[in-house]
Protein backbone atom coordinates (compact mmCIF):
# COMPACT_ATOMS: atom_id res chain seq x y z
CA UNK A 1 0.00 0.00 0.00
CA UNK A 2 1.55 3.33 -1.06
CA UNK A 3 1.14 6.00 1.61
CA UNK A 4 2.08 9.65 1.41
CA UNK A 5 4.85 10.44 3.96
CA UNK A 6 2.80 13.26 5.50
CA UNK A 7 -0.22 10.99 5.84
CA UNK A 8 1.95 8.32 7.47
CA UNK A 9 3.24 10.57 10.23
CA UNK A 10 2.19 9.54 13.73
CA UNK A 11 -0.67 11.44 15.36
CA UNK A 12 0.34 14.03 17.94
CA UNK A 13 0.22 13.13 21.58
CA UNK A 14 -2.76 14.54 23.47
CA UNK A 15 -1.79 17.06 26.14
CA UNK A 16 -2.32 15.86 29.68
CA UNK A 17 -4.39 18.96 30.41
CA UNK A 18 -5.66 21.79 28.26
CA UNK A 19 -4.03 25.10 29.25
CA UNK A 20 -6.53 27.44 30.92
CA UNK A 21 -6.14 31.23 30.71
CA UNK A 22 -8.21 33.67 32.76
CA UNK A 23 -9.50 36.81 31.03
CA UNK A 24 -11.45 39.72 32.53
CA UNK A 25 -12.00 41.98 29.50
CA UNK A 26 -12.40 41.92 25.74
CA UNK A 27 -9.02 43.61 25.33
CA UNK A 28 -7.26 40.94 27.41
CA UNK A 29 -9.03 38.19 25.47
CA UNK A 30 -8.02 39.61 22.08
CA UNK A 31 -4.44 40.22 23.26
CA UNK A 32 -4.09 36.60 24.38
CA UNK A 33 -5.57 35.33 21.11
CA UNK A 34 -3.16 37.43 19.08
CA UNK A 35 -0.23 35.61 20.68
CA UNK A 36 -1.47 32.16 19.68
CA UNK A 37 0.36 30.61 16.75
CA UNK A 38 -1.82 28.72 14.32
CA UNK A 39 -0.56 25.18 13.88
CA UNK A 40 0.41 24.25 10.33
CA UNK A 41 -2.19 22.16 8.57
CA UNK A 42 -5.04 23.15 10.89
CA UNK A 43 -7.98 25.58 10.97
CA UNK A 44 -9.06 27.52 14.06
CA UNK A 45 -12.60 27.60 15.47
CA UNK A 46 -14.17 28.69 18.76
CA UNK A 47 -16.99 27.77 21.11
CA UNK A 48 -18.30 29.60 24.16
CA UNK A 49 -19.88 27.98 27.23
CA UNK A 50 -21.82 29.96 29.81
CA UNK A 51 -20.65 27.38 32.36
CA UNK A 52 -17.04 26.21 32.22
CA UNK A 53 -18.15 22.81 33.51
CA UNK A 54 -20.28 21.98 30.48
CA UNK A 55 -19.06 19.12 28.31
CA UNK A 56 -18.20 19.39 24.64
CA UNK A 57 -20.94 17.07 23.47
CA UNK A 58 -23.92 17.47 21.13
CA UNK A 59 -27.41 17.98 22.51
CA UNK A 60 -28.59 14.53 21.41
CA UNK A 61 -26.27 13.08 24.07
CA UNK A 62 -27.55 15.47 26.75
CA UNK A 63 -31.05 14.06 26.44
CA UNK A 64 -32.02 10.72 27.98
CA UNK A 65 -32.52 8.13 25.24
CA UNK A 66 -31.49 10.80 22.72
CA UNK A 67 -29.56 8.57 20.28
CA UNK A 68 -32.26 5.91 20.53
CA UNK A 69 -35.02 8.39 19.64
CA UNK A 70 -32.99 10.46 17.15
CA UNK A 71 -34.59 9.03 13.99
CA UNK A 72 -38.05 9.62 15.44
CA UNK A 73 -37.25 13.23 16.37
CA UNK A 74 -35.99 13.79 12.84
CA UNK A 75 -39.04 12.43 11.05
CA UNK A 76 -41.68 13.76 13.45
CA UNK A 77 -40.23 17.27 13.19
CA UNK A 78 -40.26 17.26 9.39
CA UNK A 79 -43.73 15.68 9.26
CA UNK A 80 -45.16 18.31 11.62
CA UNK A 81 -43.51 21.36 10.04
CA UNK A 82 -42.83 20.45 6.38
CA UNK A 83 -42.95 24.10 5.27
CA UNK A 84 -40.02 24.89 7.57
CA UNK A 85 -37.87 22.30 5.79
CA UNK A 86 -39.03 22.88 2.22
CA UNK A 87 -35.68 24.38 1.20
CA UNK A 88 -33.59 21.59 2.79
CA UNK A 89 -31.76 19.46 0.24
CA UNK A 90 -29.77 17.14 2.50
CA UNK A 91 -29.75 15.50 5.92
CA UNK A 92 -27.26 18.14 7.06
CA UNK A 93 -29.62 20.94 5.97
CA UNK A 94 -32.36 19.31 8.05
CA UNK A 95 -30.08 18.94 11.10
CA UNK A 96 -28.96 22.58 10.90
CA UNK A 97 -32.59 23.71 10.75
CA UNK A 98 -33.51 21.45 13.68
CA UNK A 99 -30.58 22.82 15.66
CA UNK A 100 -31.91 26.31 14.93
CA UNK A 101 -35.28 25.37 16.42
CA UNK A 102 -33.74 23.80 19.52
CA UNK A 103 -34.28 20.13 18.69
CA UNK A 104 -31.51 17.80 19.99
CA UNK A 105 -29.12 16.80 17.18
CA UNK A 106 -25.65 15.31 16.68
CA UNK A 107 -24.33 18.79 15.80
CA UNK A 108 -22.34 21.02 18.14
CA UNK A 109 -22.25 24.73 17.22
CA UNK A 110 -18.88 26.44 16.81
CA UNK A 111 -17.89 29.77 15.29
CA UNK A 112 -15.06 31.30 13.28
CA UNK A 113 -15.46 34.57 15.21
CA UNK A 114 -13.84 34.55 18.68
CA UNK A 115 -15.95 37.50 19.86
CA UNK A 116 -19.12 35.51 19.15
CA UNK A 117 -17.73 32.69 21.30
CA UNK A 118 -16.95 35.21 24.04
CA UNK A 119 -20.54 36.46 23.86
CA UNK A 120 -21.86 32.97 24.56
CA UNK A 121 -19.35 32.49 27.37
CA UNK A 122 -20.77 35.62 29.02
CA UNK A 123 -24.41 34.54 28.88
CA UNK A 124 -26.21 33.84 32.16
CA UNK A 125 -27.80 30.69 30.76
CA UNK A 126 -27.18 28.66 33.93
CA UNK A 127 -29.23 27.85 37.06
CA UNK A 128 -26.61 29.57 39.19
CA UNK A 129 -23.82 32.09 38.51
CA UNK A 130 -20.87 30.30 36.91
CA UNK A 131 -17.60 31.09 35.20
CA UNK A 132 -17.78 30.96 31.41
CA UNK A 133 -15.31 29.40 29.01
CA UNK A 134 -14.14 29.88 25.44
CA UNK A 135 -12.57 26.88 23.71
CA UNK A 136 -10.09 27.48 20.91
CA UNK A 137 -10.03 24.50 18.53
CA UNK A 138 -7.18 23.68 16.20
CA UNK A 139 -8.78 21.20 13.80
CA UNK A 140 -6.68 19.24 11.25
CA UNK A 141 -7.51 20.40 7.72
CA UNK A 142 -8.44 16.86 6.74
CA UNK A 143 -11.18 16.90 9.40
CA UNK A 144 -12.72 20.10 7.98
CA UNK A 145 -15.44 19.48 5.39
CA UNK A 146 -17.93 21.56 3.43
CA UNK A 147 -21.68 21.07 3.47
CA UNK A 148 -21.72 19.00 0.24
CA UNK A 149 -19.00 16.51 1.25
CA UNK A 150 -19.75 12.80 0.83
CA UNK A 151 -18.31 12.16 4.29
CA UNK A 152 -20.74 14.71 5.75
CA UNK A 153 -23.61 12.94 3.97
CA UNK A 154 -22.60 9.66 5.63
CA UNK A 155 -22.51 11.06 9.16
CA UNK A 156 -25.54 13.34 8.83
CA UNK A 157 -27.71 10.48 7.56
CA UNK A 158 -26.92 8.46 10.68
CA UNK A 159 -29.61 10.62 12.29
CA UNK A 160 -32.27 9.01 10.07
CA UNK A 161 -31.37 5.42 11.01
CA UNK A 162 -32.80 3.55 14.00
CA UNK A 163 -30.35 2.45 16.72
CA UNK A 164 -31.20 -1.22 16.23
CA UNK A 165 -30.16 -0.93 12.57
CA UNK A 166 -26.79 0.65 13.24
CA UNK A 167 -24.89 -1.73 15.48
CA UNK A 168 -21.94 -2.48 13.21
CA UNK A 169 -19.26 -5.02 14.07
CA UNK A 170 -15.98 -3.82 12.58
CA UNK A 171 -14.27 -7.22 12.72
CA UNK A 172 -15.04 -9.63 9.87
CA UNK A 173 -17.19 -12.55 11.02
CA UNK A 174 -15.06 -14.97 9.00
CA UNK A 175 -11.44 -15.45 8.05
CA UNK A 176 -10.51 -12.64 5.67
CA UNK A 177 -7.56 -10.83 4.17
CA UNK A 178 -8.97 -7.48 5.23
CA UNK A 179 -8.61 -5.89 8.67
CA UNK A 180 -10.08 -2.90 10.50
CA UNK A 181 -6.48 -1.91 11.25
CA UNK A 182 -5.25 -1.76 7.64
CA UNK A 183 -5.32 2.04 7.72
CA UNK A 184 -3.17 2.18 10.87
CA UNK A 185 -0.39 -0.08 9.60
CA UNK A 186 2.06 2.79 9.16
CA UNK A 187 0.77 4.81 12.10
CA UNK A 188 1.35 2.75 15.21
CA UNK A 189 4.27 0.97 16.90
CA UNK A 190 4.42 -2.62 15.70
CA UNK A 191 3.80 -4.05 19.20
CA UNK A 192 0.60 -2.01 19.60
CA UNK A 193 -0.63 -2.97 16.14
CA UNK A 194 0.11 -6.65 16.80
CA UNK A 195 -2.04 -6.53 19.95
CA UNK A 196 -4.89 -4.99 17.96
CA UNK A 197 -4.59 -7.60 15.22
CA UNK A 198 -4.37 -10.44 17.74
CA UNK A 199 -7.57 -9.29 19.41
CA UNK A 200 -9.26 -9.11 16.01
CA UNK A 201 -8.08 -12.63 15.15
CA UNK A 202 -9.38 -13.98 18.49
CA UNK A 203 -12.83 -12.51 17.89
CA UNK A 204 -12.93 -13.97 14.37
CA UNK A 205 -11.81 -17.33 15.79
CA UNK A 206 -14.57 -17.25 18.41
CA UNK A 207 -17.15 -16.67 15.70
CA UNK A 208 -15.78 -19.51 13.60
CA UNK A 209 -16.22 -21.85 16.58
CA UNK A 210 -19.93 -21.12 16.66
CA UNK A 211 -22.10 -24.23 16.33
CA UNK A 212 -24.14 -22.29 13.79
CA UNK A 213 -21.24 -22.15 11.32
CA UNK A 214 -21.90 -24.45 8.39
CA UNK A 215 -18.23 -25.16 7.63
CA UNK A 216 -15.70 -26.90 9.90
CA UNK A 217 -12.87 -24.84 11.37
CA UNK A 218 -10.05 -24.81 8.77
CA UNK A 219 -6.53 -25.95 9.52
CA UNK A 220 -3.73 -23.42 9.85
CA UNK A 221 -2.55 -23.79 6.25
CA UNK A 222 -5.90 -22.59 4.95
CA UNK A 223 -6.27 -19.57 7.24
CA UNK A 224 -5.48 -16.17 5.74
CA UNK A 225 -5.23 -14.27 9.05
CA UNK A 226 -1.65 -14.80 10.22
CA UNK A 227 -2.48 -14.31 13.91
CA UNK A 228 -5.34 -16.77 13.82
CA UNK A 229 -3.20 -19.25 11.89
CA UNK A 230 -0.53 -19.18 14.63
CA UNK A 231 -3.12 -19.96 17.29
CA UNK A 232 -4.53 -22.87 15.32
CA UNK A 233 -1.06 -24.21 14.48
CA UNK A 234 -0.11 -24.33 18.16
CA UNK A 235 -1.89 -27.66 18.53
CA UNK A 236 -4.00 -26.47 21.47
CA UNK A 237 -7.61 -27.73 21.49
CA UNK A 238 -9.71 -24.98 19.95
CA UNK A 239 -12.30 -23.68 22.39
CA UNK A 240 -13.88 -20.44 23.52
CA UNK A 241 -11.81 -20.51 26.71
CA UNK A 242 -8.60 -21.03 24.70
CA UNK A 243 -9.23 -18.03 22.47
CA UNK A 244 -10.20 -15.79 25.39
CA UNK A 245 -7.12 -16.80 27.35
CA UNK A 246 -4.97 -15.33 24.56
CA UNK A 247 -6.64 -11.89 24.65
CA UNK A 248 -3.85 -9.27 24.98
CA UNK A 249 -6.29 -6.96 26.77
CA UNK A 250 -7.67 -9.50 29.25
CA UNK A 251 -8.27 -7.87 32.66
CA UNK A 252 -6.73 -4.64 31.31
CA UNK A 253 -8.19 -1.16 31.55
CA UNK A 254 -10.36 -0.25 28.57
CA UNK A 255 -8.13 0.02 25.50
CA UNK A 256 -10.73 1.24 23.03
CA UNK A 257 -10.25 4.90 24.00
CA UNK A 258 -6.58 4.88 22.96
CA UNK A 259 -7.42 3.30 19.62
CA UNK A 260 -10.21 5.81 19.08
CA UNK A 261 -7.88 8.74 19.73
CA UNK A 262 -5.44 7.36 17.16
CA UNK A 263 -8.25 7.36 14.61
CA UNK A 264 -9.66 10.78 15.54
CA UNK A 265 -6.30 12.55 15.36
CA UNK A 266 -5.65 11.49 11.78
CA UNK A 267 -6.47 14.12 9.19
CA UNK A 268 -6.61 11.90 6.10
CA UNK A 269 -6.50 8.24 5.14
CA UNK A 270 -4.84 6.17 2.44
CA UNK A 271 -6.98 4.18 0.02
CA UNK A 272 -8.56 1.31 1.92
CA UNK A 273 -7.91 -2.33 1.07
CA UNK A 274 -10.70 -3.43 -1.28
CA UNK A 275 -11.37 -6.72 0.51
CA UNK A 276 -12.16 -5.13 3.86
CA UNK A 277 -14.11 -2.17 2.48
CA UNK A 278 -16.27 -4.51 0.39
CA UNK A 279 -16.97 -6.66 3.44
CA UNK A 280 -17.93 -3.63 5.55
CA UNK A 281 -20.17 -2.11 2.91
CA UNK A 282 -21.98 -5.41 2.38
CA UNK A 283 -23.29 -5.43 5.97
CA UNK A 284 -27.03 -4.95 6.38
CA UNK A 285 -26.48 -1.90 8.63
CA UNK A 286 -24.43 -0.13 5.95
CA UNK A 287 -27.05 -1.00 3.33
CA UNK A 288 -29.68 0.77 5.47
CA UNK A 289 -27.42 3.82 5.81
CA UNK A 290 -26.69 3.84 2.06
CA UNK A 291 -30.42 3.85 1.36
CA UNK A 292 -30.77 7.08 3.37
CA UNK A 293 -27.73 8.69 1.72
CA UNK A 294 -29.04 7.94 -1.78
CA UNK A 295 -32.17 9.94 -1.08
CA UNK A 296 -29.98 13.05 -1.43
CA UNK A 297 -27.18 11.57 -3.59
CA UNK A 298 -28.74 8.91 -5.88
CA UNK A 299 -25.40 7.82 -7.35
CA UNK A 300 -23.53 7.49 -4.03
CA UNK A 301 -21.19 4.48 -4.23
CA UNK A 302 -20.91 1.88 -1.41
CA UNK A 303 -17.56 3.21 -0.23
CA UNK A 304 -18.25 4.10 3.41
CA UNK A 305 -14.91 4.40 5.18
CA UNK A 306 -14.84 2.62 8.56
CA UNK A 307 -12.84 5.35 10.30
CA UNK A 308 -15.17 8.07 9.05
CA UNK A 309 -18.06 6.31 10.79
CA UNK A 310 -16.45 6.81 14.21
CA UNK A 311 -14.93 10.26 13.66
CA UNK A 312 -15.87 13.91 14.17
CA UNK A 313 -15.74 16.47 11.38
CA UNK A 314 -15.88 20.24 11.40
CA UNK A 315 -18.51 21.19 8.83
CA UNK A 316 -18.73 24.57 7.14
CA UNK A 317 -22.46 24.87 6.57
CA UNK A 318 -24.25 27.08 4.05
CA UNK A 319 -24.87 30.65 5.23
CA UNK A 320 -28.53 30.41 4.26
CA UNK A 321 -30.01 32.15 7.29
CA UNK A 322 -29.08 35.39 9.01
CA UNK A 323 -28.32 33.80 12.36
CA UNK A 324 -25.62 31.49 10.96
CA UNK A 325 -24.20 34.38 8.96
CA UNK A 326 -23.99 36.76 11.93
CA UNK A 327 -22.58 34.08 14.20
CA UNK A 328 -20.00 32.97 11.57
CA UNK A 329 -21.36 29.55 12.32
CA UNK A 330 -19.98 26.09 11.69
CA UNK A 331 -20.67 22.73 13.29
CA UNK A 332 -18.91 19.74 14.75
CA UNK A 333 -20.67 16.68 13.30
CA UNK A 334 -20.35 13.57 15.46
CA UNK A 335 -20.13 10.02 14.13
CA UNK A 336 -20.91 6.74 15.83
CA UNK A 337 -19.32 5.54 19.05
CA UNK A 338 -16.62 2.87 19.11
CA UNK A 339 -16.91 0.30 21.88
CA UNK A 340 -16.33 -3.28 23.06
CA UNK A 341 -17.89 -5.36 25.83
CA UNK A 342 -15.78 -6.96 28.54
CA UNK A 343 -16.75 -10.51 29.51
CA UNK A 344 -16.89 -11.83 33.09
CA UNK A 345 -13.52 -13.54 32.63
CA UNK A 346 -11.91 -10.20 31.74
CA UNK A 347 -11.57 -10.80 27.99
CA UNK A 348 -12.94 -8.33 25.45
CA UNK A 349 -15.46 -8.91 22.69
CA UNK A 350 -15.31 -7.57 19.13
CA UNK A 351 -15.06 -3.87 18.42
CA UNK A 352 -18.33 -2.40 17.21
CA UNK A 353 -19.84 1.02 16.60
CA UNK A 354 -23.38 2.14 17.27
CA UNK A 355 -25.52 5.18 18.11
CA UNK A 356 -25.48 4.75 21.88
CA UNK A 357 -22.10 6.42 22.29
CA UNK A 358 -20.77 9.30 20.21
CA UNK A 359 -17.17 10.24 19.53
CA UNK A 360 -15.46 12.55 22.03
CA UNK A 361 -13.71 15.74 20.94
CA UNK A 362 -9.97 14.90 21.07
CA UNK A 363 -7.98 16.86 23.66
CA UNK A 364 -5.39 17.50 20.95
CA UNK A 365 -7.92 19.62 19.04
CA UNK A 366 -8.30 22.05 21.95
CA UNK A 367 -5.54 24.63 21.71
CA UNK A 368 -6.62 26.77 24.69
CA UNK A 369 -9.46 27.20 27.15
CA UNK A 370 -10.15 30.77 28.27
CA UNK A 371 -11.95 31.15 31.60
CA UNK A 372 -14.28 34.14 32.02
CA UNK A 373 -15.01 35.16 35.62
CA UNK A 374 -18.70 35.14 36.47
CA UNK A 375 -18.19 38.55 38.11
CA UNK A 376 -16.91 40.03 34.83
CA UNK A 377 -19.57 38.72 32.46
CA UNK A 378 -21.82 41.78 32.60
CA UNK A 379 -18.92 44.17 31.97
CA UNK A 380 -17.61 42.11 29.07
CA UNK A 381 -21.08 41.94 27.52
CA UNK A 382 -21.19 45.74 27.65
CA UNK A 383 -17.82 45.93 25.89
CA UNK A 384 -19.05 43.50 23.23
CA UNK A 385 -22.14 45.65 22.67
CA UNK A 386 -19.85 48.59 21.95
CA UNK A 387 -18.23 46.41 19.28
CA UNK A 388 -21.57 45.51 17.71
CA UNK A 389 -21.90 42.04 19.23
CA UNK A 390 -25.39 42.56 20.67
CA UNK A 391 -28.29 40.23 21.44
CA UNK A 392 -30.10 41.29 18.28
CA UNK A 393 -26.95 40.68 16.21
CA UNK A 394 -26.46 37.16 17.58
CA UNK A 395 -30.18 36.36 17.44
CA UNK A 396 -31.47 38.49 14.51
CA UNK A 397 -35.20 39.02 14.51
CA UNK A 398 -37.68 41.79 15.20
CA UNK A 399 -38.67 40.38 18.62
CA UNK A 400 -35.10 40.40 19.89
CA UNK A 401 -34.46 43.89 18.53
CA UNK A 402 -37.63 45.21 20.20
CA UNK A 403 -36.44 43.75 23.49
CA UNK A 404 -33.06 45.41 23.01
CA UNK A 405 -34.67 48.80 22.29
CA UNK A 406 -36.69 48.62 25.49
CA UNK A 407 -33.53 47.96 27.46
CA UNK A 408 -31.65 50.74 25.69
CA UNK A 409 -34.29 53.35 26.50
CA UNK A 410 -34.99 52.00 30.00
CA UNK A 411 -38.63 51.21 29.23
Question: What does this 3D model show about the protein?
Answer:
The protein is an alpha+beta fold and 411 residues long. It has one domain (20-408). The protein is 35% helix and 13% strand. The strands form three sheets. It has a four-stranded mixed beta sheet. The radius of gyration is 24 Å and the shape is elongated. Residues 1-16 have low confidence and may be disordered.
Write a short abstract of this structure.
This protein has 411 residues and is an alpha+beta fold. 35% of the residues lie in helices and 13% in strands.
Ordered list of secondary-structure elements with their pairings:
Layout: E1 20-23, H1 26-34, E2 42-49, H2 66-80, H3 91-100, E3 107-111, H4 114-121, E4 132-140, E5 144-146, H5 150-156, E6 168-169, H6 190-208, H7 226-233, H8 240-245, H9 256-265, H10 274-281, H11 284-293, H12 306-309, E7 312-316, H13 322-326, E8 329-334, E9 337-339, E10 352-354, E11 366-372, H14 377-386, H15 391-394, H16 398-408
Parallel strand pairs: 1-11, 5-7
Antiparallel strand pairs: 2-4, 3-8, 4-11, 6-10, 7-8, 9-10
Amino acid sequence: MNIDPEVASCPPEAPSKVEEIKVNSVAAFVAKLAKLDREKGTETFYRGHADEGWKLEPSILRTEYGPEKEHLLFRDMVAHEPQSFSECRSALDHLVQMQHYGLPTRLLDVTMNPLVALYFACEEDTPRPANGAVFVFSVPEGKVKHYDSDTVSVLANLAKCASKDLSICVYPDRDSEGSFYDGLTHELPSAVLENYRMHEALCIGEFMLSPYCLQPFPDASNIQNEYLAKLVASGEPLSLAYFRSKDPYKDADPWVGKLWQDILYRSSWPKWEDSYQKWLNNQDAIAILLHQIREEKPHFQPLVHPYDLVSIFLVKAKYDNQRITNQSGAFLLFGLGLDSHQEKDGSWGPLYCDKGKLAKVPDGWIMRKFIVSKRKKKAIRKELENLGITDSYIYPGIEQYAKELKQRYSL
